[in-house]
Each structure stands twice: as C-alpha cells, then as structure tokens.
Amino acid sequence: MPSIPELLDGHVTLEVECLDRLYLNGYIGRLATSGGLVTFMREQLGKPIPSPVVLGQISEKFREAVKALAEREEIPIYQFSHKERKDEVANRIRQERGMRDGMVFIGVAQEKTQAFQGKKIDGYFQFRRDKTVYVNHYYFYIDDADFGPLFIKVCSYAPWGIKLCLNGHEWAKRQVEKKGIAYEALDNGFLSCAEPEALQQICDSLGPNDIDRLFRKWLQRLPLPLRPEDRAAGYDWSLSIHFPCRCAL
C-alpha cells in the first residue's frame, strides 16, 4: 500500500504554513475569585450588601442591551435548539445576509458553565463557583474587514466569560485580497496562489497584537455585561488560548 506522502506526491499545488482555527478565552482576572466578586460589587458598583440580586440585575441589563442593539441595527436573533449544529446555521445566515465588516446575527444558547452562586450564611451571602449551571450565552457572529468570519461568545452571568473564535486562513485571504494577489481558495485554506512566497510572508506576520486589536475593536462595538467605567477601572477582559478548538465559523 502506498503511504500518504506517496499519494500526495505530484498532487500538491501549494504548501503554506498558517494559523488555523483559534479558540481563545476572555477572562476578567480580578473576578476570578469570590473575594474579587464581592469587592467589585461593594467598591465598584457601590452595593454595601453584595447579593445574587445584584448579579441578576447586571445579567438583565445585558440581555436588554443585546435586544436593543438587534432592534436598532436590524440584526437577526436566532435561538439555538439543543444539539443544533451551530456551524450549519451560521453558514446559512452568512450566505443570506452577505455582511462585510459587520454583525451577521446574534445566536442565543443555553449552555453549561461554572458561574458564581450565592448562599446566605449568618445574614450575608457567600459566593462559590464550584457548580456547573445552565445559563444563556450570546453568540455574536461577525464578519470582520481584516479577519473575515468569526464569533464572540459572551456568558450572561458572573464572572462573564468570553470566547473568541477566529480562523488564520480567513485572515490571510483578506490580506491577500487587499494586496491584489490572485489565489484560489479552499473552504479552509488555499488551493493555489500567484505569489506563494508573499502568501507565506503574510501568514507568518499574524501575531498576538493583531488578534488583541481585533478583540478590542469588537468589545467597543458589542453590548457587554460590564459598563465602560467598570472596564476602565480594571475590570476588563484578557485573552488566553483555549483547547480544544471545536468552534464553527
């Protein structure tokens, strides 16, 4: 039996190394512990008695902000059903909407996460994050001018984790187009390119600063659970790599 390299020999039209799909965690370091959450409610929000009611109010304001954005900019909201393939829905709506550098649609799904829960002890609430609960997550499906299709998922409950899913191949395609270099695309990559060396240089140039700029750009445009003044006070999201990547663009 021939080996895989032998089968590919003579059929490969282009070899290029590029970042593929990236699934990144957005987290607020100062809210990683129950003590940090209590400090946030007391000192930043001015709530002398931190309670689950305060967290519920934040979640409700976030949901209303998402609804208001969708109505104002005529963005469809899609409620995912249990076990529905999100990538198939996203691909269909992307084709229907044909957006460029804008929000394609907003998906809503109930998913499990480790959120803070409060329990009243001796007249005060103590918060723990050791239980998995089902809460609403909001998927903002985006077409970015530089990165192409991606999504940002925001958890509606404390500590308000975020996921960013993007594809390095899609970023490279947009950069090649800007430079006017002819190429043939695959669903997730390149079939051929008129200037393969230039393509490889483009792929090599993608770095963490580019991804962080993308993240900050859309954090400015999206409704978020925390207010601008909260983020300015140090309650802002940072990015880290999340494994495994099972994100659908």
Question: How many separate helices?
Answer: 8
**The number of domains:** 1
Count all strands and give the number.
11
Given the helix and strand composition, which structural class is it? Answer: alpha+beta
**Radius of gyration from the alpha-carbon trace, in angstroms:** 21 Å
Order of strands in the sheet with the most strands?
Answer: 2-3-6-7-8-1-11
Shape: elongated
Provide the residue-averaged pLDDT.
91
What can you see in these coordinates?
The protein has 249 residues and is of the alpha+beta class. It has one domain (13-233). The protein contains eight helices and eleven strands. It has a seven-stranded mixed sheet with strand order 2-3-6-7-8-1-11, with helices on both faces. Strands 4-5 form a two-stranded antiparallel sheet. A two-stranded antiparallel ribbon has the order 9-10. Strand 4 and strand 5 form a beta hairpin. The radius of gyration is 21 Å and the shape is elongated. The relative contact order is 0.20. Residues 243-248 have low confidence and may be disordered.
